[in-house]
Structures are given as structure tokens and as C-alpha cells.
Amino acid sequence: MKNPSLSKWSRIFLIICGLGLFVSIFVPLWAIYLQAPQYPEGLAMFLWSHKITGDYQIINGLNHYIGMKTIHQKDFWEFKVLPYALGFFGVLCFIAAFLNKKIWLYLTTLFFLIFGLAFMVDFWAWEYNYGHNLDPNAAIVVPGMSYQPPLIGFKQLLNFGAYSFPDIGGIIMFAVAGILVILAYLEFRKRKNA
């Protein structure tokens, strides 16, 4: 009969993943930077699991002129859910390590990948809405122009260069996803070769 148990290293890495997800609750997940000639030092906005920090009030003032919505923490339903979701997946990693069954690793990996994909789609949809639903009575209207920030990478928006990328918490989330996929693959391959 094939062994349904996890290797010692898989259990150790599951515990590390769980701890990492708990850390990601308390550090910035994503960073958006804006640079322009009038702001050579740049403007930064940081999205955490439960709040926004950085220069977002200054960004709100600038965005008012081009008709973009202002950014307010209360408008993000995700802040009410995300800390608990990350905590849930942290606990799920611990449970998979404790129960020591491959099926729990496979389920944890599958559910976390679905969650991660949904997280990215939701973030892209927020950026799309934020950059496309503009006030037609704004002080500056450029026909056909939208101001959706990039999901990852760089995009020129009028005289502003916008950079968007994962911060510490986002890097942890990507790392956990990668580790889980590798562990699931190695455990599955080991089972096939048993």
C-alpha cells in the first residue's frame, strides 16, 4: 500500500508557510509608487491586509483633478476579510503538517492557489474601476484616457510614472504558493514512484 504520509521536510515547510502567512497579516502586501517632475521624491501608497498607509491623501488630491475616485479605507470590503483569510490559510498549513496526510497538502495547495488567483483578479478589478470610472466634469479631461495603474510593473499615466509590485506580505504569499506547489508535486511524484 502506498504511503499517504508526508515527508519530514514537507511538514517543516508547511509550518514555515503557515508562519509566513501569519506574518503577512502585519506587513504591507502591495506597494504603488508614483513619480513625476513635481514630485521627484515620489509618492507611495501601501496596501496591507487591513489598511492603507503612505501618501494616499496626497494622491487623492491629485486624482481629483482628473476625475478619479478618492481612496478611503472604508471602501475596501477586502480589509474586513483578508486578515482572516490569511490566518485561515496559515492554520490550514499547520493542520496539514499536523495531520501528516498528502491529501491535506493537496487541498491546502489547491485552495490557496484559488484564493491567490481570486485576490489578484479582485485587485485588478479594483484598479480597473479606479482608473476607468472617471468624473466627466473633472478639471482635466483627456478624451480616451484611462488611469488604471499596472497590476505588476510600470505604466506611464500622463506625466506620472506608476510602479506597482508586491511588498513584503505579497512576496510571502507568492513564496507560499510556490512552496506549496513544489511540495505537492514532489509528494505526488514520490507516491507515483513508490
List descriptors.
single chain; 194 residues; alpha+beta; 55% helix; elongated
Describe the structure.
This protein has helices at 8-24, 56-66, 78-99, 102-132, 168-193; strands at residues 30-36, 39-47, 52-54, 153-157, 160-166. Helix 4 (102-132) packs antiparallel against helix 5 (168-193). It has 194 residues and is α+β, with helices and mostly antiparallel strands. It has a five-stranded antiparallel sheet with strand order 3-2-1-5-4. The model has no long low-confidence stretch (mean pLDDT 90). 55% of the residues lie in helices and 16% in strands. The longest helix is centred in the middle third of the chain and has 31 residues, at 102-132.
Describe, in short, the structure shown.
The chain has helices at 8-24, 56-66, 78-99, 102-132, 168-193, and strands at residues 30-36, 39-47, 52-54, 153-157, 160-166.
Strand content: 15-25%
* Alpha-carbon Rg, integer: 20 Å
Structural class: alpha+beta
Element order: H for helix, E for strand: HEEEHHHEEH
Tally of extended strands? 5
What percent of residues adopt helix (DSSP H or I)? 55-70%
Mean pLDDT: 90
Low-confidence segments, given as residue ranges, are none
Tell me the layout of helices and strands:
Blueprint: H1 8-24, E1 30-36, E2 39-47, E3 52-54, H2 56-66, H3 78-99, H4 102-132, E4 153-157, E5 160-166, H5 168-193
Antiparallel strand pairs: 1-2, 1-5, 2-3, 4-5
Helix pairs in contact: 1-3, 1-5, 3-4, 4-5
